[in-house]
Amino acid sequence: MSLFLIAALPFLGAVFPALLIRAGRNACASAAGAVTLLALIGVLVNAPRVMAGGVVTAQIDWLPQLGMNLHFFMDGLGMFFATLILGIGLLIIIYARYYLSREDPMGQFYAYLLLFQGAMVGIVLSDNILLLVVFWELTSLSSFLLIGYWKHLPAGRQGARMALAVTGAGGLALIGGMLVLGNIAGTYSLSEILDQKELIQSSPLYLTALILILLGCFTKSAQFPFHFWLPHAMAAPTPVSAYLHSATMVKAGLFLMARLWPVLAGTDAWFYIVSTTGLVTMVLGAMIALFKDDLKALLAFSTVSHLGLITLLLGLGTQAGALAAVFHILNHATFKAALFMSAGIIDHETHTRDIKRLGGLRTLMPVTFVIATIASLSMAGIPPLNGFLSKEMMLEEISHTTWFDSHWFFPVLATIGALFSAAYSFRYIGHVFLGPVRDDYPSKPHDPGAGMWISPAFLVLLVIAIGLFPEAVAGNLVRTVTDAVMGEYGDYYPLKIWHGVTPALYMSGIAVVGGLILLAMHRPLDKGWIATPRPEAKTIFDGLVGALTRACRGITDTLHDGAIGRYAAIFIVFVLVLGGYAFSSGAMGPQTRPMLEIEVLPAIGWFGLVAATLCIVAFHRNRLLSLVLIGVVGLVVTMLFNYFSAPDLALTQLSVEVVTIVLMLLALNFMPKTTPRESSAGRRTRDVLISVAAGLGVGGLIFAIMTRGFAFDTISEFHLANSYKGGGGDNVVNVILVDFRGFDTFGEIIVLGIAAIVIYAITEAIMQTSVRARLLNRVPDQSVAGDAHPLMMVVVTRLMMPVALMVAAYIFFRGHNLPGGGFIAGLIAAIAIIMQYMASGFGWAAARQHFPYHGIIGSGVLVAAVTGLGAWFNGMPFLTSAFGYIHPPGLEEFEWATAALFDLGVFLAVVGAVLLALESLSRYAWNPNIDSRHPMDINPSRDDNGRVIRKD
Amino acid sequence: MELLFASAIGVLTACGIYLILRQRTFPVILGLSLLSYAVNLFLFATGRLSVGAPPILQYGVETYTDPLPQALVLTAIVISFGMTAVIVMIALSAYLSENDDRIDMDNPSEPAKDDA
Known about the structure:
The complex is a heterodimer of chains A (952) and B (116).
Chain A: H1 3-13, H2 15-20, H3 25-51, E1 56-63, E2 68-74, H4 76-99, H5 106-125, H6 129-147, H7 154-185, H8 190-193, H9 197-202, H10 206-220, H11 229-232, H12 238-246, H13 249-259, H14 261-264, H15 268-290, H16 295-316, H17 319-350, H18 361-364, H19 366-380, H20 386-399, H21 409-430, H22 450-468, H23 470-486, H24 503-520, H25 522-531, H26 537-559, H27 564-585, H28 600-618, H29 623-643, H30 647-670, H31 681-706, H32 716-727, H33 732-740, H34 742-767, H35 771-776, H36 791-814, H37 822-840, H38 842-847, H39 853-873, E3 883-886, E4 894-897, H40 898-923
Antiparallel strand pairs in A: 1-2, 3-4
Helix pairs in contact in A: 1-3, 1-5, 3-4, 3-5, 4-5, 4-12, 4-17, 4-22, 4-23, 5-6, 6-7, 7-10, 10-13, 12-17, 13-16, 15-16, 15-21, 16-17, 16-21, 17-19, 17-20, 17-22, 17-23, 19-21, 19-22, 20-21, 20-22, 20-24, 21-24, 22-23, 27-31, 28-29, 29-30, 30-37, 30-40, 32-33, 33-34, 34-39, 34-40, 36-37, ...
Chain B: H1 2-20, H2 25-45, H3 67-98
Helix pairs in contact in B: 1-2, 2-3
């Protein structure tokens, strides 16, 4: 099966449980299980090739320019982890089916679980470190969903947030580290990076990359001092804990350390950072675990401790260390998943996880007892179980490791760790199952149905099988994986139980005996432990997060104090400073373009524009007057466009001007008609200074641009040359809009549509509030015209309507070759309709308008999109236009172009957007008390009571 | 002529910015409109000024003005209408709900309560 399919299956499959939950919980769980099983089969089908030393690959180039590609490969390490992830995933899915109660949304659970599983499989199969980082982040996100699955529990939410904060922060460091690593190696392809040990380790950036990558690994794998999130993540349902903390999430960090082992390991920095962190984590985790009364907390800290052990082994940088690490990853996954599931069973049946309330379950829950005991003994390192084998290998390796010239530091600490590890494992058995049967369990305990114990039972069988026949069951696998970790074929001794009397055996013996003694002394030790003051990680974390939040809030509130005028001033001054810096630090070329002669007409226009603009500022307190003046400015700008060879712009500006003024007039109707004088003289002086400086800057800049030629050839020549040949139109501006840059235009009509819909939404929201009542009771602040709908205006606008629409059609059709086009035609058509609203009233016009404006916007965008998609059927890219000519008999040559259809979309979108905006605004003015059924106040065919006189 | 054009853009910008720095919504909207004119003229002028050379292809005519800034500005004009409409709407709705058209907020946001 292709690696793409294996990686994609869980993601695709995540849909099924979410949907099939409607068909019942069994269908839901079966779907999740079937998907996982299929992916697992996919991995196993490829297994023989990998075991023979081959590598399975699958590659698609995604963004080769960025070095980011969908490259997957599966060697021994990838296969090993993929099998663990999918295999244990399958067992968890079975277990969770019986664990979750009827109230829990099971569809969501399996969907999250499969997403997480897919992200994990993606990590272990990625052959591109950027792709790996993407999957890495996905595991952080999906594990957040899983840990916080019980949304109603504050502990669940907090635990999820903490896990996300810690692993997410580590993920950021990892991204940095991976980029540095890729930069050193000159490639982001993992298999190519793995060949460049010398290059990477001799780079001055090696240490940076190493530390950043290790930060990612340590946070993910809960290494000291980032271990604290893991116990808090125990607020998740037990299947999640069993999955995330035995075989997957926390192993991702170990996986990455193993994956990058060939290029990162073997240096002093690697040894001291990794192995010391691992050792400290191992001892600390084991110590805390012994004093936890919550079953899952005990297991959580024991997981921290075992992760530390594996990190320690990887940190040694030796072949035997890697072999032991791989072996222990396998063993830990088996016994820890089984233990978590057994803890879940106890919780499920007795309704408590507090060890102090348990005991004597041996006879009440015999099946669980057997499973949990075997798994615990393996965790304690008791022969002949698999935990013993890998722990023995670890101790053997440690016994001849020196740390800063000290021969005893590692062995002693490792023995202490193993000792505590044995102690809490024994406690799990002794204080839960042994001892007298109690009569105060919260619920009467008994063994659950087979559905719940079958998964842990299977794992426990593996624990025994690997323990008894290590070479036969796991020998080849562990060696293949270790080869993959080391990146070379190693020479190994076979896995076996008995190595003779070695230092490791003594250390193991001390650990087991010491563990038993510790357990016997648990009660006084526990009292001492509780009495000892210790730093509480959660308090520190919460304090840190709180301080960070306060600092951010302080900065935000200081900068963002609600004075918008201040922000604008800061912004403008900042841009001015930047511009001034750019001007002073650059060199301006000489003037290369002769200026045009000043002529009379534009000089008059200039005078009108400047005078009107200055008058706006001078009289801006009189709002109506400034609106008139801004109309003048708009008209002069229109004329300027026309004078300087831009007829299309002139047409557009003119029609937009009409719509804008209507809009502002409508708004002004409800607002105060004057602006009070508020700002102090000082502030006004400041504002004048800022704005004059900005005006000088902008004016100077454009003057400099206009008096200089183009620095390089413009792309406009291309457009002029190809407008007719390629686009079939003479009006180059229109051809650019609907053809060359059609995609931009497509975006713009969407933006315009969104703007109109935003306006509609604001109106709707405001009309739901008390504003509506206030509007209805509003007393106009100005005298109302005697004629609401003057006869002359009504008649004229109606007569003009067909004419205006005809003009719009004309402008639309000629647009490809002469000034015009969809934008302008749309505005003209919109104005024609607005005139009806203005003359005959909102109610009258709205009653005669049968198409909702949202629909018109939508159809415009759709028409444009469908026209663009049409190009695909010709095998051309999106929005490629086609055109041709037909000769209808007796008529002139007629051009057809798909661009016209696109322009029709633009037309519709513009009409819809303009009208929706104005219609929304006029809804404020609409008042049911005003009779707007009759479009004219004076109607000869109506008597004074408003009844139509029948002419019988 | 370039000097006139540039000075007109400068005046539009300066007046637009002065109005944007006022404290009521309506002058700010006027200022934004003036600034839109200035920006559109600015973009248009980056194609350099020419008289009597519209970019409409005709037989025998060789020189045309730069069509690309025109296409950009055409959509910019329409989009700036959309933007103005949204801002007018926000300003009007704020005035109607609060009976106040000042743009500055009196009290900065209260610190939100931490979610447990």
